[in-house]
Design brief:
alpha/beta; Rossmann fold
């Protein structure tokens, strides 16, 4: 079983997918106490609550796979797009430091998996990603594969395009990102019954939510979508319907519940929601979709096993020759 260290784990979407695929998460980290609370309740006590910059590198155990859904705000269209000029953007270099430390100790991770927003590859005319790829390939010595994966292509009715970067220390490994699968459910299939009154919109809020915008901003306020818009960390604020997800329930309009957001991110119903609604919306809005994580993990396993089998066959051939 491959041992995994997870950075910026949040409530555990990426980790949950890898666990389902059979990986062993031995150590995780996040600096959000509410996300850590959710993680501990649902996945395990191996998560450390601390700013990654303050963690002693010697305390991070040796591992086969490194996961890092590193903060996306510096590269997001919704953020300031400051990239490496933003202090949060430099957290990529902290990831590189951790890998370099393991290389110096002859414990280089076999696989690295990084996740970020779709625009990571195009930010600053592609310069940001060129720096990341250069560090991974030329300084850390990984064979890198990257693509954008949409959650709606992996069994979840949510349009969520995210950049995935997978690197292998062995350059002879061949890797292919998972093929899309048919979408069998709509957002309506995931809705709860008998939803509490607090989730329904008042007439005053409804007018704002269904407005087309102001001044130079105009967007059609669609609701009851079959495939949800991307969940965001600020859902608790209730954005306009052109930016957020709303549904009609018994003739009235309401927001999504935290449980529905969890389902739209691939979390099972036995995933316990132990925080406030505001924190739950934030966690599920920031999470990596479990389904996507699972299929990426399975593709990595297939590549590692196929490569190992090929090496064994080469050894047998050389031995019997």
């Amino acid at each position: 079983m491959y041992k995994v260290v997870s950075l910026f784990s949040g409530c555990g979407g990426l980790d949950y997918g890898f666990l389902k695929a059979g990986f062993d998460i031995i150590w995780a980290n996040d600096n959000d106490k509410f996300a850590v609370q959710s993680y501990r309740e649902n996945i395990g006590d191996h998560i450390i609550l601390e700013d990654l910059n303050n963690i002693d590198l010697d305390s991070i155990p040796n591992h086969d796979v490194l996961l890092a859904g590193f903060p996306c705000q510096p590269f997001s269209m919704m953020g300031s797009e400051l990239g490496f000029e933003d202090a949060r953007g430099t957290l990529f270099f902290r990831i590189a430091e951790i890998i370099q430390d393991k290389i110096e100790k002859n414990q280089k991770p076999k696989v690295i998996v990084l996740e970020n927003v779709r625009t990571l590859r195009t930010h600053d005319g592609g310069n940001t990603y060129r720096v990341i790829k250069h560090v991974l390939e030329n300084e850390l010595g990984y064979k890198v594969f990257d693509t954008v994966l949409n959650s709606a292509n992996y069994g979840v009715p949510q349009t969520r395009n995210r950049t995935f970067i997978v690197g292998f220390s062995d350059h002879n490994v061949e890797f292919k990102f998972p093929d899309p699968i048919p979408l069998e459910n709509t957002m309506q299939d995931l809705l709860e019954k008998n939803v509490p009154e607090k989730y329904f919109l008042s007439e005053k809020i409804l007018k704002t939510v269904l407005s087309t915008g102001t001044k130079n901003y105009y967007a059609e306020p669609e609701i009851d979508l079959k495939i949800a818009r991307p969940l965001c960390a600020t859902m608790a604020k209730m954005h306009r319907a052109s930016q957020d997800n709303y549904v009609t329930d018994n003739g009235r309009v309401r927001r999504l519940t935290p449980r529905e957001c969890a389902r739209l991110q691939g979390f099972p119903d036995d995933f316990k929601i132990v925080v406030s609604d505001t924190q739950a919306y934030k966690q599920f809005g920031n999470a990596v979709t479990v389904n996507v994580a699972y299929y990426v993990a399975m593709s990595i396993l297939e590549s590692l096993h196929s490569h190992k089998q090929n090496k064994n066959e080469e050894f047998k051939y050389a031995f019997t020759k």
